[in-house]
Specification:
The chain contains 7 helices and 5 strands. With 226 residues, the protein is an alpha+beta fold.
Length: 226
């Protein structure tokens, strides 16, 4: 079977002497693993299509009854150059890709998840990353993956909870001490979920210093809005 689908490259790894395996998230087929034969050779084709943080229209070939696809071609739509040129943006983008990789099963399509990752990468490309970006992305992915919470927890106000799930990522800028407390609680919710669900830690947490941002800060009484 041969098919073409829009996809974001989430991850790549070497395979055998000169091949690569990539994990992509596609609009119509969900998460797929695909092999690129000979792409690591000096004259190998399709190298650009194997790079993480690439949005492209990809062409796949899958044998009858096969699990691993073969990437046969494609057309790049964006490589998000601004994201790649900035270390923090790139780490945050790779963090979103790893979350999608780790929290979604193979071959289960979700147009909403595809829109979530493409929206996140586009906002990182054209907007400013905010401290709430990672938590907001994770909470939304939790909901789409069936792990979302029906109601806010830890006394997070419904309006704040809704903003974390609905607002543009670049609009999630908080300066008020009380809002910063609610953001820390959202980070705490995310950390508890990831600690319980994942069998080993995310590789992209430490470069961002995110492991230090999940603790709920202790505010002085005068800083708490009544």
């Amino acid at each position: 079977m041969i098919f073409t689908d829009s996809a974001v490259v989430l991850y790549r790894q070497p395979f055998r002497e000169s091949d690569r395996i990539i994990s992509v998230y596609t609009r119509a087929h969900g998460r797929l693993n695909a092999r690129l034969p000979g792409v690591a050779r000096a004259g190998g084709k399709l190298k650009a299509l194997s790079e993480p943080l690439t949005l492209a229209e990809l062409r796949f070939y899958v044998k009858r009854g096969g699990v691993l696809a073969t990437l046969t071609g494609g057309k790049i739509h964006s490589v998000f150059p601004t994201v790649r040129a900035d270390l923090k943006r790139m780490h945050l983008a790779l963090h979103c890709c790893e979350l999608l990789l780790r929290l979604t099963p193979l071959h289960q399509a979700s147009a909403e998840k595809f829109e979530l990752i493409t929206t996140a990468l586009t906002e990182l490309e054209y907007g400013e990353p905010t401290p709430a970006f990672s938590a907001a992305f994770t909470l939304r992915l939790m909901s789409l993956a069936g792990f979302g919470l029906d109601h806010p927890v830890l006394q997070i106000p419904p309006a704040f909870w809704e903003r974390m799930h609905e607002d543009n990522f670049s609009n999630l800028v908080f300066d008020d001490p009380q809002d910063l407390l609610y953001l820390a609680k959202c980070n705490n919710v995310v950390r508890r979920f990831l600690d319980r669900y994942l069998t080993y830690p995310l590789n992209t947490l430490k470069p961002l210093g995110l492991e230090d941002n999940f603790e709920v800060p202790v505010l002085q009484p005068s800083a708490v809005v009544k």
